[in-house]
Amino acid sequence: MTQNQQGQIILLNGASSAGKSTLCRAIQAQIDQPFLQFSLDFFFFRGEVLPDRRDSEGPFSWPVMRPKLFEGYFNCLSGLLDAGNNLVVDYIVETREQLAALVQRLSAFDVFYVGVHCPLEELERRELQRGDRRPGDARMDFQTVHTFSGYDFEVDSTDSPEHNAEKIIAAWKARASSGVFQQLFREFTSS
Ligand SMILES: Nc1ncnc2c1ncn2[C@@H]1O[C@H](COP(=O)(O)OP(=O)(O)OP(=O)(O)O)[C@@H](O)[C@H]1O
């Protein structure tokens, strides 16, 4: 498959409750090409993928299941892109090692990496209001999620999703041929 037949990915990174999924939907609705939304949330919060039982050890050990789930999810992203699907994806980068794994897996693709910023007070307000997220997760993400790299584009999610989607799509269309993920790939493979 040639380069231009591969799908392209717009990847949003930000804390839990920053408004990433909402923004993915707004991008998907506004963009003039088909983009699939494919989120880890679909495993955790929709559908019936994961067993309810997640223990600290034993046959249902979450510390054993979790890295395999994430690794498989990264494989799904590259599989979908390789088949020619464009993707708009939200993710919460938790560690530099996790970012390195994502960069490695997406190294062959056109990745547009977007930082979704939101003030802590607003994150916590949203987290409390939605009621389906563990209180404290947003604060924990807030302290680390934007510390691992720069971005191709950044937005403030206190602005409306529609306006941010418009800005992201315009920036994506005007993007440079080599983005932050390609720089990161060089960094990670040379260190
Ligand atoms: N621009 C916005 N202004 C006000 N509220 C918003 C905005 N964007 C999203 N929200 C609300 O914030 C909550 C979290 O949004 P969303 O599910 O998009 O966040 P998320 O970053 O994908 O979260 P998670 O990573 O936990 O899945 C939702 O209740 C959503 O309606």
TrEMBL record:
Coiled coil: none annotated. ATP binds at G14, A15, S16, S17, A18, G19, K20, S21. Keywords: Transferase. The active site is at D41. One of its GO terms (molecular function) is ATP binding. SUPFAM superfamilies: P-loop containing nucleoside triphosphate hydrolases. The keyword Repressor does not apply. This is Putative O-phosphotransferase.
